């Protein structure tokens, strides 16, 4: 910029980027820029002679940074977020999870859905496939299915990719009770608390060895000691 330009002659371009003043001695080009209250900025140093533009340097720098951020935003690869659903999930819990899934798709991430069977639920796999179709239908306005629901061990897996931004339309709202706005979430150590990658429940604690129809007996009240 200005006196830091080392080339003896430069090709000068006007602020609008279309009109040129031609090839001028660098000192003359700097003088013209300063007379206008602007700066001479080298924009193509490898050209012969180098190309310089008469601009407001602060404004020019701001626009360059803005374009760089936009380019980075558009080329930033989305992540794969994981969401786990239990067969027979509570309607309120379902609403929270499906809203978070919409959040991820709105942010450009893919969503890997895992439907988990526990214990005797394996005898009713049709319930899992029914839930998978419900999730697929609820996210239809935000994403398309890359991997159709497929049984894998004790789980049904499915993957959904986001639709192009202009085609996305949210079905669920993030202000529902129990749902945290993603802008308010503080990510710690790279973990997104909306994601079920590190589930709070231990998947190995299955209820194969428990009978849901036989609850543990209630503790019997202790008789008070005899009065002295």
What report would you give on this structure?
This protein has 228 residues and is of the alpha/beta class. 26% of the residues lie in helices and 24% in strands. The chain is built from 4 helices and 8 strands; from the N terminus they run ββαββαβαβαββ. It has helices at residues 26-35, 57-75, 91-106, 125-138, and strands at residues 9-13, 20-25, 39-44, 51-55, 80-86, 110-116, 143-152, 155-162. Strands 2-1-4-3 form a 4-stranded mixed sheet. Strands 5-6-8-7 form a 4-stranded mixed sheet, covered by helices on one side. Strand 7 and strand 8 form a beta hairpin. The longest helix is centred in the N-terminal third of the chain and has 19 residues, at 57-75. The chain is rod-shaped and about 85 Å long. It starts with 8 loop residues before the first strand and ends in a 66-residue tail after the last strand. The model is unreliable at 177-189 and 198-219 (pLDDT under 50).
Task: Outline the secondary-structure elements.
Layout: E1 9-13, E2 20-25, H1 26-35, E3 39-44, E4 51-55, H2 57-75, E5 80-86, H3 91-106, E6 110-116, H4 125-138, E7 143-152, E8 155-162
Parallel strand pairs: 1-4, 5-6
Antiparallel strand pairs: 1-2, 3-4, 6-8, 7-8
- What is the tally of helical segments? 4
| Class based on secondary structure composition and strand pairing | alpha/beta
Strand order of the largest sheet: 2-1-4-3
Q: Tell me the major beta sheet.
A: 4 strands, mixed
Determine the mean pLDDT. 78
Instruction: Report the count of strand segments.
Output: 8
* Percentage of β-strand residues: 15-25%
Distance between the ends: 99 Å
Taking Cα atoms only, what radius of gyration do you get, to the nearest Å?
Answer: 31 Å
Query: What ranges have pLDDT less than 50 throughout 5 or more consecutive residues?
Result: 177-189, 198-219
Q: What is the approximate shape?
A: rod-shaped
Order of helices and strands: EEHEEHEHEHEE
What helical percentage do the residues reach?
Answer: 25-40%
């Amino acid at each position: 910029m200005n006196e830091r330009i080392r080339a003896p002659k430069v090709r000068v371009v006007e602020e609008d980027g279309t009109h040129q003043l031609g090839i001028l001695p660098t000192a003359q080009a700097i003088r013209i820029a300063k007379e206008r209250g602007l700066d001479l900025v080298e924009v193509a140093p490898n050209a012969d002679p180098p190309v310089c533009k008469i601009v407001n340097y602060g404004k020019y720098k701001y626009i360059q940074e803005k374009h760089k951020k936009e380019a980075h935003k558009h080329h930033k690869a989305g992540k794969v977020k994981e969401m786990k659903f239990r067969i027979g999930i509570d309607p309120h819990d379902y609403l929270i999870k499906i809203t978070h899934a919409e959040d991820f798709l709105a942010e450009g991430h893919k969503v890997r859905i895992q439907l988990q069977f526990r214990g005797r639920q394996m005898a009713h796999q049709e319930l899992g496939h029914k839930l998978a179709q419900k999730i697929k239908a609820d996210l239809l306005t935000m994403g398309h299915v890359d991997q159709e629901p497929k049984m894998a061990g004790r789980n049904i897996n499915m993957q959904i990719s986001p639709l192009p931004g202009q085609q996305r339309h949210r079905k669920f709202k993030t202000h529902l009770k129990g749902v945290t706005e993603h802008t308010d979430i503080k990510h710690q150590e790279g973990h997104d608390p909306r994601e079920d990658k590190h589930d709070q429940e231990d998947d190995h604690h299955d209820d194969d060895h428990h009978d849901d129809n036989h609850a543990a007996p209630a503790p019997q009240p202790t008789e008070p000691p005899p009065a002295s």
